[in-house]
Amino acid sequence: MSKKIGLLFALLILAVHSRAQVQAIEQQFTVAQDGSGDFKTIQEAVNAVRDHSQIRATIRVKNGTYREKVVIPAWKKNITLIGESAERTIITHNDYSGKDFPQRDFTGNAKFSTYTSYTLLVQANDCTLQNLTIENTAGRVGQAVALATEGDRIEVYNCRILGNQDTLYTSKNGRNFYKDCFINGTTDFIFGEATAVFEHCTIQSLTNSYITAASTTREQDFGYVFFNCRLIANDEATKVFLGRPWRPFAKTVFIDTEMGAHIAKEGWDPWKGDNMFPEKEKTAFYAEYNSTGPGAGREGRVAWSKQLTAGEREKYTLENIFTGWLPGKKSRLEPTGGRDTSFSVRGSYRHEIAHHPNIRIADAALPSAVQVIRNLEYRVSAAGKPLALDIYKPKKKAKAPCPAVLMIHGGGWRSGDRTHNATLARKLAANGYICITADYSLSTQALYPAAVYDIKAALRWIRTQSRVYGIDTTRVAVLGFSAGGELAAFIGATNGNVKFEGNTTEKGPSSDVQAVIDIDGILAFIHPESGEGNDSKSISAATYWFGYPKNERPDLWNDASPLTHVSAKTPPYLFVNSSVDRMHAGREDFIQKLNAFGQYSEVKTFADAPHTFMFFDPWFEPTLATISGFLKKVFATPAVVSGK
User: Fold this and answer.
1) Which of 56, 251, 394, 625 has its CA 20 to 30 A from that of 139?
2) Domain boundaries, given as residue ranges, for the chain
């Protein structure tokens, strides 16, 4: 029975691990009608996207005419649908209001309505459409929607949205952004409740009627806003109104728009004859600013419309219209709040012993001359979590204050804890140093730069407590392994940079360090040697820390690179590296910058050593000796404490 339970437990662990691996894959699919892609239909690709994914899935659609009625449901968020070309990647269907259903739907309806006549329906949040033609070819048979949006933060670029009546339905109170699009239709062919911006779009009227029919709610500050658009028409359309209010409180504004001669001199229509909502013009907000062309004349416009002043125009910015969202800036991953225990010293040992059968975990015994002071809270994190540190110091009181070494653990900015540096801290403390191992905000709790703020706060704390623990504040080093090595390098490179101090209201001593020991931590995230974020099919640890993939926010990835910030204030560096080349990405460039400022550096590389070499013999003692020699050189360290 115990063997069966053990087997079941192992299978459960494997399933959880497999699920975690699956969740780490960034999905990318190709749709091609000739079978050369992953799927032949767009809907199949949409269905294959993980439910409720925080990571963007990209579906690339090859040229072709896809006769589909496509739905991106609410649980398939973060999808980007990209056509090969707007003119030749076509999604088409021909349903319309009043058309018979092939069979009754779940409500018992036998006919299509306006709301079910769509060709493409986007119900999910944070979806992007690009380089597509989306059309409803039902003809002039009444309401026939080509594209319907129900989600929030919908972006549409370089798309052709074609139809007749009710071509584009921006349903529900979401936010839509259309740029460089071509939209045509007959009556009310841009309609709905959403807050939507149209930038550099061409709007074509096919007959005398109305372009927009907004149903903005009373609570919304903005409805439809057109920036730098062109209003054109075919020969049939000679008198077209900019809009009419589908519901009370409708809002539509045209700014810097070129209007053809087909635009009626009145500009707007009140939609008389609506018995349910009469006199909607009394609550509608219809306005223009700086429009040009033969249809843009102010004389003759209905009295209840408005010409914006220059001051009023200033509030029409994307930041104001889309409060809390800026199109083009992708949604940031949110911390999960859980604890990631995937990285540990023993776990690394189990992994590496298969490749290095002679390794042993370094002796963690506490030297008799060293004492430990544990669980000292040094600050509360941005996530409201108390952050603690441990101090390892010589028992014997020194004649003068001792140098200090703040130690930062690794674990991909997501896992690990301060105990991982305990062995090295004990041995260095026996050599006359006061070693501090500190926890910091991991990406499961708070994103970059929260960890930087924490570590700099720990350095300030060390200096405030220097008399209590006998610390020489003029000789403070920072040491880190892997992700901790990158952070240590970053802390040193940003000496004196107030941008990374975090809460600047915290008055106190400096967070500067006088030396840095970087153990297999990279120096640049965007670099030919870096492996972070280079695999398009996986999510790197850095992506979770920054909240964005490299291609979406390269500015953030560069900002977090120590190489970006080297200056005359940057202190001496020791680089201790494994044989894994990508773990010292940017090192040579970093050293060149140090040389330019006349700053000292050393490099120690262990041939054939794995990334986690510092935890294991035969590399631990040489690593300790290298670090001790470097610190002695830059700090003129006192003699080794007796009774080691």
Assistant:
1) 251
2) 87-321, 361-635
What is the DSSP secondary structure assignment for residue 640, as one 8-state letter? Answer: P
Q: Does residue 152 have an active-site annotation?
A: no
CA 376 to chain centre: 33
CATH number of 87-321: 2.160.20.10
Q: Are strands 573-577 and 471-481 parallel, antiparallel or unpaired?
A: unpaired
Distance CA 450, CA 448 (A): 5
| Superfamily of domain 361-635 in the CATH hierarchy | Alpha/Beta hydrolase fold, catalytic domain (3.40.50.1820)
Residue 178: which of 191, 197, 164, 162 has the closest Cα? Answer: 197
**pLDDT tens for each residue of 117-170:** 999 999 999 999 999 999 999 999 999 999 999 999 999 999 999 999 999 999
For range 60-65, the mean pLDDT: 96
DSSP structure string for 254-271: EES-EE-TTB-TT-B---
List the one residue out of 331, 525, 546 whose CA is nearest residue 449.
Answer: 546
Please list, in sequence order, all residues whose beta carbon lies within 8 angstroms of the beta carbon of residue 75, skipping any fewer than 6 positions away. 51, 52, 124
Residue among 149, 136, 150, 73 nearest 99 (CA): 136
Cα→Cα distances 580→312, 361, 607, Å: 59, 20, 9
Measured between its terminal Cα atoms, the distance across the chain in Å is 50
Instruction: Return the H-helix or E-strand segment holding 3.
Output: helix 2-23
pTM of the shown model: 0.60
- Phi/psi at 98 (5° precision): 100, -15
**From CA 225, how far away is CA 253, in angstroms rounded?**
5
187-209: per-residue pLDDT in tens?
Answer: 999 999 999 999 999 999 999 99
178 close to 199: Cβ distance less than 8 angstroms: yes
Bond into 554 cis (ω within 30): no
